[in-house]
Specification:
With 196 residues, the chain is of the alpha/beta class. It contains six helices and seven strands. The protein has a seven-stranded mixed beta sheet, sandwiched between helices. A hairpin with a 6-residue loop joins β3 and β4. α1 packs across α5, α2 packs across α3 and α5 runs antiparallel to α6. The longest helix has 21 residues. The chain starts with a strand and ends in a 6-residue tail after the last helix.
């Protein structure tokens, strides 16, 4: 595998039933990145759908992957991808939903705790390290008494659709920035930025 490759994983649940739900916002952002590199996802032996390419000639190679597993068991496919493509976990970027951020916010981090996110917890356990980058895509907290489990499996509201498009573009930009510019520069660019 070329040394300039980055593995970018979008978390979510498989199947049409979950495609447009808040829990799948990481995979929605990955679709934006796939469009940019002009690549289509296809089945891969690692129990994931994979697309590969470069956003710009001479730029880093991106291996984009959507695990076929449910969110809470993302670790198996991600560890298989890391092994198959011989990617150091430090060159892994995971795009995922984040309840603890307002709907239009992004945060980037490397390492640290999972913050109660079961997909991130499972990946850190499978890789035996938390030292990978995350693009945390804010989906906000459920309104009223609605449980978080129900909230994340609901589609975005119609009033959220337009800002969602901007948020997904920003998340794809953030993944590119992590690969091209490093964590600190990417954080300076995206922290505090909100979809308009």
């Amino acid at each position: 595998m070329s040394s300039d490759a980055w593995l970018v994983v979008g978390l979510g649940n498989p199947g049409a039933r979950y495609e447009a739900t808040r829990h799948n916002v990481g995979q929605m952002a990955l679709d934006v990145l796939a469009d940019r590199i002009g690549a289509r996802f296809s089945s891969h032996r690692t129990n994931a759908r994979v697309a590969e390419g470069r956003v710009a000639p001479g730029g880093p190679k991106f291996i984009l992957a959507k695990p076929n597993s449910f969110m809470n068991t993302s670790g198996g496919p991600v560890s298989s991808l890391v092994r198959y493509f011989d990617i150091d976990p430090e060159r892994l970027i995971v795009l995922h939903d984040e309840l603890d951020l307002p709907f239009d916010a992004l945060r980037l981090k490397r390492g640290g705790g999972h913050g109660g996110h079961n997909g991130i917890r499972d990946i850190a356990r499978a890789l035996d390290t938390p030292e990978f980058s995350r693009v945390r895509i804010g989906i906000g907290r459920p309104p009223g008494q609605q449980s978080a489990a129900d909230f994340v499996l609901k589609p975005f509201a119609s009033v959220e659709r337009e800002p969602l498009g901007v948020l997904l573009e920003d998340a794809a930009d953030a993944a590119e920035a992590l690969a091209n510019d490093g964590l600190t520069a990417a954080q300076q660019r995206f922290h505090g930025k909100q979809a308009k």
